[in-house]
Amino acid sequence: MTNPVVREVEKLREARVARTLATQHPDATVTVRVQEEPQEAVECLTEYGCEEYMIDFEGKLTPYLQPMQVLMELHDAGVVVGEDRYVITRVPSATKENVLRQIQALLGVMEANAELQKREPDARGIFEVVHPMTSSPDELVEFVDRIFYARRFAARELDVPLRAGNLRVIPLIEEVPELLSIDEILRGYVQGVREIGVDVSYVRVFVGRSDPALSYGHMAAVLACKKAIHEVYELSDELGVPMVPIFGGGCLPFRGHVKPGLEDRYTSEYAGTATFTIQSGYRYDHPKEEAIASIKRTNELAANEPLELSDDELEHLLLATAIFVKHYLSVFYRVIGVINIVADMLPNTRDRLARKGPVGYARDIPEPERVGEMCKDLGEVGRELYRELRSMKVEMLPELPRAIKFTGAFYTVGMPPELIGTGRGLAEIESRLGDDALETVLSLYPTLERDIDFAVDYTFLETAGSVLSSTAVSLVNSDLEYCVEYLDIEPPSDLEYQNLVHTLEPYLRYVTTHGKPEKEPKQFIREILLEMGRLRGSLG
Length: 540
Description:
- It contains 23 helices and 8 strands.
- The chain is an alpha/beta fold and 540 residues long.
- It has 2 domains: 4-307, Phosphoenolpyruvate-binding domains (TIM Barrel), CATH 3.20.20.60; 322-359 and 400-536, no CATH class.
- The chain has an 8-stranded parallel β-barrel with strand order 1-2-3-4-5-6-7-8, surrounded by 8 helices.
- Helix 13 (311-345) runs parallel beside helix 15 and helix 13 (311-345) packs across helix 21 (470-486).
């Protein structure tokens, strides 16, 4: 049964809220070039059964005209965009990339809609755009204003009808502090756009799962996403504006464990999610028939009743998140330099912008003190955690890799990032907050045991110890021991994967010792990296 808030959004939207969103994430071992993406959109919305497709300009070499190419390909294939199948666009961030790229993407969408409406006068085309890496309501209000600016420019200079520029904003929230305070961001956004005379009848909210895990750890990301989804529905009631979440997850547990065969689990784990991303690894690194069946099942299961959290559970969640962040960063800071080198080895399977350079960008460094600040009014333990996290703040780090290559790099060295800080965090929650808090965390994350069990299958800390800090590996070994104690997990068993890790070990030692990989790794190294990705079901 679809939850009533989703039904209300569908009424206001005059269209079904898509349950499955196919994306252009570069997390598959199969390479898809930008020239192939318009046809990919057709395949996703017809053969695979996804209900929505996202054109992605963020950090990607997506051509300005791709929205038009996608809409024309879909039109020629008989797909009515905006009625039973949908296309959205993620535009670049004006602050992380630049304003020009953002406006170009918006104009590309408006021109595409205009061209489609020449062929189909009543067509809606693309009517929602995603604003990435949202950190404040002001960014969103400025973005809305920029849409109106682009709309006027397109009408005056490009002869694009004004209605082709009727675009709604989907805020994408993708860091732990922002997810934990998502109510403040969304409340400020609704109030801010109302002040400039824009009515907000509904909001779709994109909850990012990968980037918070990169900066703050697996457990912190899970708990922050749970709170965010809960707050979206709470705020919907408070403001009288129906709001529903999109959950952005990839195939590996560190990125959400949204993959074929697990649809009953992830739709229950992130209950209340109206739309789940179906990323490239989901579609291309699993048998096609299995992916299609799983997408169909997700379309049936998504948009269920949201998880409800009591005040006590919310307090335990915040304190536990702070504890997990502390233990994750104790390893992250020690290994990020080497992980960066390994991440740069992994093949590019989409046409992405460089991580660094005049048109590239890197992720922000973690801000643990912001997580601690949310705990400082939660008793003495909260104040202590605030002081501990504040002391972990750093001013400088190497430029961080993207989440997909970051995840793949850890798996490549034999130390899956799901383990980092998890076991030690569980032990500290029990000793410092008590059994009730530990029980809250375990009940809030019912698939934890299965997710860690998956990661342990690819854990070879002896290999990791040959390239990473011995202190870091020792801490993760403690995590593993505690996970064995608290969770019913089995030791590593994937011998084929283990052989590949061992085969790669001398090369890993060489490139990490010399500080950087070759510009183009030898073909057999590339093949090993791709085969490892195929075995785990996703590049990263």
